[in-house]
Amino acid sequence: MATGNGTLQGKVVIITGGGTGLGKMTALLMAKEGADIVIAARRVGAIEQTAKEVRDIGPRALAIPTDVKDSQQVNSMVERTLAEMGGLDILVNNAGIVRGQERKPLWEITDEEWHLGINTNLTGAFHCSRAVIKHFLDQGHGKIINIASGNGMRGQRGDFMYGTAKAGLINFTRILATTFAPNNIQVNCIAPGFIDVTQLQPEPVSSAFFRNAQFIPVGRFGVPEDIGHLALFLASEASDYITGGLFANDGGGLAGGVSPTGYAPVIAMEED
Ligand SMILES: NC(=O)c1ccc[n+]([C@@H]2O[C@H](COP(=O)([O-])OP(=O)(O)OC[C@H]3O[C@@H](n4cnc5c(N)ncnc54)[C@H](OP(=O)(O)O)[C@@H]3O)[C@@H](O)[C@H]2O)c1
How far is CA 252 from CA 129, 130, 217, 222, 249, in A? Predict the structure, then answer.
C-alpha cells in the first residue's frame, strides 16, 4: 500500500539512475505518493531491486536496463514505458557519474574521458528529454526534473567534465523551460550539495569524507530524503507555476560560498 497522500496517484515517472542513491530514494518516495515508476540504469541487479521495493509499496514498477549515453537505448526505454505503463508524466534526469572520474592535469584528459563525463552527465539528459518531449506535447502536460550539482555553479579545481556538464545541465533546464513553457511542460533543476548516499548502494559503503561537515552551514551532510522530497514537490501539481527554476539543496553551502573548491586552504574564521 502506498503510504503518502496520493499526490502522484495515476502518474508514471521515469527515473534514470534509480537503482542507487538519490534516484532510488526519489523512486521510493514517489511510489509512496502513488506513482508508477520506471527505473532506467545500467546495473540490472540494482534497478530490479528498486523495482521490487516500489512494488512492495504498491505501485507498478518497470526496471529497464539503459545506458543514457546511448540514444537508441533511451528511445527504446521510453517506447517500452509508453507501451507497458500506458503513459508518461514525469522524467527525472538523475543519472550521473559522481565519482570514478579521476582528477588529473588537463593535458592528460583523454577524448574518451571527456566524452564519458559530458555524455553521462549532460548528453544523457538531452537524450531522455528529446525522447519524451513529443509525448508531453501531445498530451498537453509533463514535467522534467534535472539533477545537477552545486559544482555546476562553482569551479572546483580539476573537476573538468563533471562541473562543466552540470553547468550545461543547469542552462539546458532553462532553455527547455522557456521553450516549452507555453505547452504546460515544467522543467526544473535541483543542485544537491553533499548528500550521503553510501547506504543506498548495492553494497553499502563507508566514506571518510562524510565524517566532517563543519564546512556546511547547517553542520550536517544531506540525506537522500532531502533531495527526494524536493523532487517530489517539483513532480507534483503544487509546483505547476514553477518552471526554469534552479534549487540549491545543500544546507546553505552555496549561500555561504564555503563548499570546498579543492583550492583554498581551510582557514579558521572565528576563535572557538
Ligand atoms: N550525492 C551527492 O552528494 C550529489 C551531489 C551533487 C549532485 N549529485 C547528482 O545526483 C545524481 C545521483 O547521484 P548519487 O549521489 O545518487 O550517486 P549514485 O548512487 O552513484 O547514482 C548515480 C546513478 O547514475 C547511474 N548512471 C551512471 N551512468 C549511467 C549511464 N551511462 N546510464 C544510465 N545510468 C547511469 C548509476 O547507475 P548504473 O551505474 O547502474 O548505470 C547510478 O545509479 C547524479 O546526477 C549526481 O551527479 C549527487
Answer: 30, 33, 5, 11, 8
Q: Where are the domains of the chain?
A: 12-256
Candidate CATH numbers 3.40.50.720, 1.10.8.80, 3.40.50.1110, 3.40.50.2000; the one for domain 12-256: 3.40.50.720
- State the distance from the centre of ligand 1 to the C-alpha of 18, rounded, in angstroms: 8
pTM of the model: 0.96
pLDDT tens string 13-51:
999 999 999 999 999 999 999 999 999 999 999 999 999
Q: Which bin fits 87, alpha (ψ -120 to 50), beta or left (φ > 0)?
A: left
From ligand 1's centre to the CA of 234, what distance in Å? Answer: 19
pLDDT tens by residue, 193-225: 999 999 999 998 888 888 888 888 899 999 999
Q: Atom 38 in ligand 1: which residue has the minimum CA distance?
A: 42
Which residue in 162, 172, 180, 194 is the catalytic one? Answer: 162
